[in-house]
Amino acid sequence: MFKKILSKKYFIIILLILLTDVLIFFNVPFFRSFAAILLITFLPGFLIIKSLNLNMDGIKIILLSIGSSLSFLMIYFVAFDYLSLSMGYLKPLSLIPVIVSLNVILVILTTIANRMDKDNEFNYSVIKSNLKSNLKFSNSEKLLLIPPIYFVALSFLGVYFMNYYNNNIIIVFLIVSIATYIILITYYSQKATNRLYLISIFLIGLSVIFLMPLRSIYITGADTNLEYYYFITTLSSSHWVITGSTSLDACLSISILPATYQILSNIKSEILFKFMFPIIISTIPLIIYIVSKKYLKNSYAFLAAFFFISQVLFINAAANTRTFMAILFVALIALVIFDDQIPDMKKMILFILFLFSCILSHYSTAYIIFAIFLISLMGMTIFSRKFESKSFLTVGVLVLFFCLIYFWYSQVTQEAFDSGVVFIVKSINNLNHMFIQESQSSAIQTATGANLNQSNLTYKVNFILNWLVLSILSFGVLSMIVKFRYFISIFENRLNFLKSKIEPLYFMIVCACFAVLIIVFTVPQITKGYDMTRTYSLTLVFLSVVFIIGNIIIAKIIKVVLKYLIKVNVNCEKTSYLLILIIILPFFFSVSGVNYVISGNPQSMIFSSSSDEYKSFYITDQESSSSKWINITMINRPILTDHWGRNRLVSQGEISFNRIVFFGEYKKLSNVYLYLRKNALTDYIGEYNNSSNIIYNSGDSEIGFFKL
């Protein structure tokens, strides 16, 4: 009967769903986790894409399926959670309700996809032929694929040596090997295929992004501990909890999404949270490559993707999960709106889906991308008055965007909207202080070279490299603006290095991103409330390709100058590759921390167990135990600690924000408990030792009762 209703392809999908159910209910080790993760990461989105009857390249189908699945999981289960609670069922996010409701909606989606998909026949011989051709690599491809595979292994091996022997030589070797491989694959670009670039980008991204979470068995980072608290609270409560404490209430990417994965896969919560997000985030460089190769050669697009990987925030992405989940959806928006194969109506459906998912993932990123789209719309309005051009971005789209922001941040979670309004008001009120150094954040002061004269040589080199990259990026943007007739698709003239000209909307988004970076850099209040590097990483979704364009144009200028001065005719393409590598590889060494290792003063916790970053981010076994002990023993009592102690208490002890008081605020309270982490013992114990009784000592942390 099923076969009469469904085609063979979709009948097999139903069987796979049932097989996954069996593995989950019988809790079959490994197979349950593998099948559940594969199912929820790919299948819902795949069915949505097929319901839209989209026929695209295989890699685009995979990326859009993953993105649509993540969107579906957040939207569907928050709606399911709300309806269940309103009907009096208090544990909607537990195994039975989740799997039953998921099965129902997947069967519905399968039925719709079967009806809408025009290519729904299952042809085994065609599939076998396609797999055989896709898995058949040439000898040169095999040779060029060996290093990226080893990079992931080196990442695990290098961190193992760092954790157990305090030896960073293998990690340094990994970074140097990646740089060498970039040179190699650029040199042999004629032999490199599209699939080789795709696999290499993904594996390089994984090998770099895994370095931080592998350094500890516990949660690593700053905000990640707070994000993990929301995940574990949702999981233990079996429903979505709005704490009302912070704007993180609005971020379903760190609560409902990982909770759904854990419920179905049964992977240990901390391991799941540490490694699920880095794997998902590693798809962002793939999207940047795909978007970039529409306009530039594949080899240039590969370098654009590597430029994104080379950013410090990407390397530390495991400590910025909600930010990068939002950036992922922005990248998917770029993939959708600049893809010529997707019809406008279906493009709008996916655009709204990913836009709302960005809002559900991170409030600040949503506000920034709204500003970028608003400036882009203003630019398109002015541009279209002089030159006839159509834009996907309209006033209606921006109104819808704002309505979604208002609905989610104001009507549902509230705190994120209130914080956003206060933030904007403060930023406007502080405009007259933009050139006063004291009003600038530490990030801006560092970027402008404050105290540069007192810094060491390595710091100065890194400072120069950062500004060199920013200068070339700025030059690329300004070149596009000055020579816009050679870049924008509605004009006839085209520069020879462009595969296709850039859409007017892409051009306006590039200009808007550049404008936002200038605003963030010059308005003091913005960088105090929102890290400048996060805004920069977001804009690089659109600007990475512009960095490559900037280098190509500089190479053309070098060619003209050399020909005029010394009558030498150089190859412009080879010069551009050389220029990109000369800049991007030292920059990669700089942001990864290798420069500091070479100078004998490693700053990153990836390379050192004595750096300040390690002392702040790394959680010891004793600190974890003491955090759990204080939660069990000292119920509902205020706890006095520092910023990093707070992170340990919320992630390891699962202690509410409301119970934690920072040093300096304790005078408002009496009879509080004192929590001192390992590296705070020497900083604070002398100050509070006389008035507190130590009641717990784990060696790396102490707990005392503090009387005023």
From TrEMBL:
Stored InterPro entries: DUF2206_membrane (IPR018701)
Transmembrane segments: 9-26, 32-49, 61-80, 92-113, 143-163, 169-189, 196-218, 238-259, 271-292, 298-317, 324-342, 348-379, 391-409, 464-484, 505-523, 535-555, 576-598
Keywords, in A-Z order: Membrane, Transmembrane, Transmembrane helix
Protein's recorded name: DUF2206 domain-containing protein
